Every structure is written in structure tokens, then in C-alpha cells.
Amino acid sequence: MTQNIEIEFKNMLTKIEYESFLKYFKISQSQIFSQENHYFDTPDFALKSNDSALRIRKKGGTYEMTLKQPADVGLLETNQVIGEEEVIMAIHQGILPTGIIQPLIEDYQISFSTIEYFGSLITERVELEYKQGLLVLDHSIYLSKEDYELEYEVEDYQIGEKIFLELLKQFKIPSRKTENKIVRFYKQKFDKTN
Is 147 exposed, middle or buried (0-12, 13-18, 19+ CB in 10 A)? Predict the structure, then answer.
């Protein structure tokens, strides 16, 4: 189990903007890796209403269940490594693995057994060390939608924000309101106007 504070800046990109970053940073196809996110909540979105999110991520051959919760700055991430059998049980039978995350969810007065699987999102990702943080380029595919996103993960909010805004300015990209992947996924899944 690990816990860490996640401080990241995000901006949606057009396909052309995304491709310009790939070109600028000379990204080869071999640097792009795939990860799969499986999302969970209660039928009435009790986690979402607490500004929290639960996912299981497959990255390479490993699986990790992550609870994201609000923190004073950024998000508190609690990670629990789980096995493939536990993932299958969670997705197909709605039985989540017990461990460090369960009591954190139950602190919200949410019964662990009421959490259900909502679906998955696949991301083709590139990660680059950039100045004082980690620059991430994402191409995500979920339901009938594709989108592109720039993320910048940092230790220091003020420094990170300055570098991120300078990078957007350098590429002449407007600052866009960017929601988390799980929010975009839920909007696509449940918004009947799509």
C-alpha cells in the first residue's frame, strides 16, 4: 500500500496539438504504452458526491486499485496492488478486494458491497521528464469517444503551474477546463445528449 499526494495540471488537446507535442519531443511509437482503467462507484455515485474516485488500473502485467480523495493541495491517492483474480471478481461479480482502501471508503458511510463496475477507459500514454516534473501525453479511448490530454505532475504547485502555463503558451494552446478521465467517462456514459 502506498499513499501520495498527486499535484497535476491538465489541459485537453486537439488531435493536431497532441501530434505537435509528439513531434516536438521526438516521441517514437515504442515510447507509447497502453494502460486500462476500470471505474467503480455506487449506483447513486456516492464516491463522486464525496469528490472521490475508485479505479483499478492495468499497467503492463500488474493491477493496482486506487482511491483518489480530496487533499488540501491536489489529491490523496491510496494505492493497493491486487491480483488478476481479484480484478475479475471486481468486474464480473462486483466483489472488490478487501484491504487498505475498504475502511477509507467506509469512512464515508458507504457500504463496500454497494460499489459496482461502470466500465473501462484505455489510454495510450507517453511519460517524459520535463523541467521539474513529469509530462504526460494521453490519447484516451472510451465508449464511442476519443480524446487527447496533456498532464503535468509536480511536487510544488506554484512552480508546476508556472512551467505548465509557459508550455501551453509556447505551443499557442489555450488553457481549457479539463475534467478528470473518470468524470469525462461518466459524462459520456450517462449524458443522454451525446
Answer: buried
